[in-house]
Amino acid sequence: WSLERLLAEARLRRPETRMARAAREGADAETLAAQREATLPSFTVGLMYFAPVSTMPMHGYGASLSADLPWLWGGNARRADARALAGHAAKAEEAAASLQSDADVAAAFSTQRTSAERLRVLLKQVRPTSRRAFDAAWAGYAAGETDLLTILAARRSVIEADVAIVSARAALEHALTELEWAVGAPLPRRSLFPEVANE
Predict the structure, then answer these.
(1) I want to staple 64 with a disulfide (CB 3.0 to 4.6 A). Which of 31, 46, 113, 172 is the partner?
(2) For residue 115, what pLDDT is reported?
(3) C-alpha–C-alpha distance, residues 156 and 142, integer Å
(4) DSSP letters of 144-183?
(5) Which residues 6+ apart lie within 8 Å of 9 measured at CB?
(6) How does pLDDT run across 96-151, given as a tens digit for each residue?
(7) How many angstroms separate the first and last alpha carbons of the chain?
């Protein structure tokens, strides 16, 4: 995947970014509710029934009406302001989680690209060069123009190149695992160098 897609997937999939987004959405809903409470009046209507008792032997009925006018009492407005500040804090936490996610993905992506490039150089340049040097040394030895130490040194270079390739493959696999962790999901994989995969 491209870096842009990796960043987008990480923002959607990583648990900490999802938690921060959910917290921000909850804070937005609470802010909206607090703002409505601070601006819209509320009314309460009550109907009452009083059963007859010995001191009052008749049935009694009653009604009540109350109104809460938020513009006359400032408590709801202060609560709305507090909720708005909490909403700003939740947005800042979401932005911080996204920044951390982006930093993790960018670092892992860079490491993966560096590891892949190192493996590419080893497979396409270092190993073929060391093999050609060994073939030339062997031909020289067969012709009697090269000594045994030169052949052994050339063979050692081939072995060192092969060991470096094994190490580079392991580093690339580790970098890919780190990238998957940074994104928060398994990533599709393909052969980086199909033309040298079986060499």
Answers:
(1) 46
(2) 94
(3) 18
(4) T-S-HHHHHHHHHHHHHHHHHHHHHHHHHHHHHHHHHHHH
(5) 1, 183, 184, 185
(6) 999 999 999 999 999 999 999 999 999 999 999 999 999 999 999 889 888 989 99
(7) 26
Please give the structure tokens belonging to residue 130: 């060391």
Q: Give whole-number Cα distances, 71 to 66, 75, 76, 85, in Å.
A: 15, 9, 9, 20
Q: Please report, as a single letter, which amino acid is at residue 122.
A: L
**pLDDT (tens digit per residue) in 22-43:** 999 998 888 888 877 777 777 8
Integer Cα distance of 78 and 76 in angstroms? 5
Spatial separation of the C-alpha atoms in residues 56 and 50, rounded to whole Å: 9
Token pair 């696999």 is found at 173
Sequence-distant (6+) residues with CB within 8 A of 175 are: 108, 111, 112, 114, 115, 116
Q: How does residue 154 score in pLDDT terms, banded at 50, 70 and 90?
A: very high
From residue 6, how far is each of 21, 60, 96, 107, 187 by CA, in Å? 18, 71, 18, 12, 9
Helix, strand, coil shares of the chain, percent, nearest 5, are: 70, 10, 20
Residue 101 contacts residue 10 (beta carbons within 8 Å): yes
CB 80 within 8 A of CB 35: yes
Tokens describing residue 113: 């690209």
